[in-house]
Design a protein that fits this description.
heterodimer; A: 174 residues; alpha+beta; Alpha-Beta Plaits; 2 domains; four-stranded antiparallel β-sheet; 4 strands; B: 471 residues; mainly alpha; 17 helices; globular
């Protein structure tokens, strides 16, 4: 893999970070990504990220699960092996509700978690190295792709310093 | 950033983001504390006793328990329901309090969720043993098989299979999703290569990018929304195991809400027991403050009062229904051979939590600790009273009996306590017991530094206004 170069602006708190992100975006520079130790509210909007569709996926997983389970139970109790228990009808919908509910929750949660891992690129084995290991502790890191910046590198550095970055680093990753 | 000066600070002491990481990650690094080693030793002895008694049961059969034709459910189901109940507080704290935007949840949710998972594991051991043939547990799952029959979808016992396995899975996922960012924090702090590699695998390569956090927030919210009805459904379904039967004392519609309130009640008691010890041994008093303890005590008053009302309602309905069998069942509870158990239950669950109306006691660690143990005992007796006293005098007076457990049943119960504490102690040494990222996210609004700063600003503004007014 070819080496990639990044420009990192490092901030000490989320308030300066938010101002800097807004400032840099207003200047028209493209941010590669921002790394923070905890979720900073409004950061995704400030960066112009799209809203996640994870919850929609969750709904679809749940709906699929409950429908399949409903058909499965109905098939078992009315077609495959109809059996009278306690004088109840073969197709006893109220009695199916608890199981259907649990299956809805189960399939929505498991499906969402799988989607979350896949979309976030989370894996125990294949991992990208962190750009700055302090980003999971107490530093807020704004990263730029050095290739995309090309000529503007110095301008961006100045812009970051102006917005209160405590450190400005360049980092190469292969 | 909105600071509420009238709310008690949730983080005390002089902190910054780095200090929070240091404080919470410290217990997982370095050597274990002496308290931890002693605790682990005791837990191991209990665990070994339990394993021995379980093997004994499996080897000789369930005849080694004192169950008989009249009392077919004894300590096994009592302990099963007790453990499941304890498991309810974790999800309540992490899911329902997340939906209600209660910030104090951040200090206790991680440990409470871990406790939930371990308690559900202990509970799940019981059906494994008492259903009889341990080597064919897959019979309970509906899959096409050569036996050509299916489990009964109209039976609450099968609903239980789905409820508990779903609850366990979803709690585990919810807990782990929250753990990933904190495990990444531990990974980036790790000094040795081995430690780094272990946390690297466990943290799934979390980097904390804006998009990852956005998805994290989304999945936390949706999982909380799903877990909220789930937690209520689990104990509802457990109560159906009883309520859909024809035994007087079990066959009542009050069971689902009554069981759910009782579950939350006992779960919070167990969280308090554990957190009071944990904060002391791991020196986390700045993150689990007296304010946290008081909030949990308030939940205890609420759920304890609901449980009290449920007991009274049962008695009232027995009288008001005019059903003599129902009336006898309740009279027998309060005045029969098991009256001692009934009055232990009443004292522990109904009278003692009312003491928590006194603010001084709510904020007193010793009083809270003792009360939490009392409630744990009381809630165990509630299950024992419901199960055994309803059964021991059945429809045929000649088969009436008095049930006492054998040493095997007692040993298995002690064993589950051992398993529970072993897992919890391992958790306290390997994972951050407080959600680091979540605590950091409330530092700017809810720490005592933030509140003091806000008050100083207010005062300065007021002074400035006064000056302009006089000029």
């Amino acid at each position: 893999m070819a080496t990639k170069k990044y420009l990192l602006g490092i901030f000490d708190d989320e308030i300066t970070l938010m101002k800097a992100v807004k400032g840099v975006r207003a200047a028209g520079t493209k941010i590669y990504d921002v790394y923070t130790p905890f979720p900073v509210h409004g950061l995704d909007d400030a960066m112009g990220l799209r809203h996640t569709r994870l919850h929609t996926a969750g709904f679809l997983f749940g709906a699929t699960g409950v429908l399949l389970m409903f058909l499965y139970i109905t098939w078992i109790n009315t077609v495959n092996y109809p059996i009278i228990v306690g004088g109840k009808p073969y197709f006893a919908l109220p009695a199916y509700i608890p199981v259907l509910f649990e299956i809805t929750v189960l399939s929505a949660s498991v499906g969402m978690v799988i989607a979350y891992f896949v979309r976030n690129g989370l894996s125990p084995i294949r991992q990208e190295p962190p750009l700055d290991s302090r980003a999971t502790d107490h530093k807020f890191v704004v990263a730029f792709d050095a290739e995309e910046l090309s000529g503007e590198m110095d301008n961006v550095k100045e812009l970051l310093a102006e917005h209160g970055a405590s450190e400005i680093n360049e980092k190469e990753i292969d | 950033m909105f600071v509420s000066p009238i709310r008690e600070p949730l983080i005390t002491g002089n902190k910054d983001y780095h200090q929070i990481t240091e404080d919470i990650a410290r217990p997982t690094e370095g050597r274990p504390q002496i308290g931890w080693i002693i605790g682990m030793g005791i837990a191991q002895v209990a665990l070994l006793l339990g394993v021995f008694m379980m093997l004994w049961t499996i080897w000789y059969g369930i005849g080694t328990w004192n169950l008989n034709r009249t009392v077919g459910w004894g300590w096994d189901i009592t302990n099963f329901v007790w453990w499941i109940g304890i498991g309810h507080a974790g999800t309540l704290i992490s899911a329902i309090l997340l939906l209600f935007r209660q910030k104090w949840r951040t200090g206790v949710n991680r440990a409470a969720e871990a406790m939930t998972i371990f308690a559900v594991l202990c509970a799940a051991l019981y059906p494994g043993i008492h259903m009889g043939r341990l080597w064919v547990p897959f019979y309970i799952f509906p899959y096409p098989n050569t036996r050509a029959v299916w489990p009964n979808f109209d039976s609450p016992l099968l609903w239980d299979v789905f409820a508990i396995s779903t609850y366990f899975t979803v709690s585990l996922l919810f807990w782990y999703i929250g753990l990933i960012p904190d495990l990444a924090t531990l990974r980036d702090r790790a000094k040795s290569t081995l430690r780094k590699n272990i946390y690297k695998a466990l943290s799934f390569g979390w980097r904390g990018s804006a998009k990852q956090w956005q998805r994290f927030e989304s999945i936390s919210l949706v999982l909380a929304g799903l877990a909220t009805p789930l937690v209520l459904s689990v104990h509802t379904i457990v109560s159906f195991d009883f309520a859909t039967s024809v035994i007087p004392g079990w066959h009542t519609t009050i069971f689902p809400p009554y069981f759910v309130a009782g579950a939350i009640f006992s779960g919070f008691a167990m969280v308090l027991t554990l957190m009071i010890i944990t904060r002391k041994i791991l020196h986390l008093e700045d993150y689990i403050t007296i304010g946290h303890i008081e909030s949990m005590n308030k939940v205890i008053i609420l759920t304890g009062s609901i449980v009290g009302i449920a007991y009274t309602t049962e008695l009232f309905v027995a009288w008001y229904s005019g059903n003599i069998y129902e009336q006898y069942a309740f009279l027998n509870r309060a005045m029969g051979p098991y009256a001692w158990a009934y009055w232990i239950m009443m004292t522990c669950n109904v009278f003692s939590p009312q003491l928590m109306w006194i603010k001084k006691l709510r904020r007193n660690l010793v009083a809270t600790f003792i009360l939490s143990i009392i409630i744990n005992i009381g809630m165990w007796f509630e299950r024992f009273v419901i199960i055994v006293t309803s059964l021991h005098r059945d429809f045929l007076p000649s088969s009436w009996t008095y049930y006492v457990p054998t040493f095997v049943e007692v040993g298995i119960f002690i064993g589950t306590l051992g398993i529970f504490f072993t897992l919890f102690l391992l958790f306290a040494r390997t994972f951050p017991v407080i959600a680091i990222a979540e605590v950091k996210s409330i530092w700017r609004t809810s720490s005592n530094q933030a509140i003091e700063k806000f008050q100083q600003q207010e005062e300065a503004e007021a002074a400035a206004e006064k000056e302009t007014a006089t000029v």
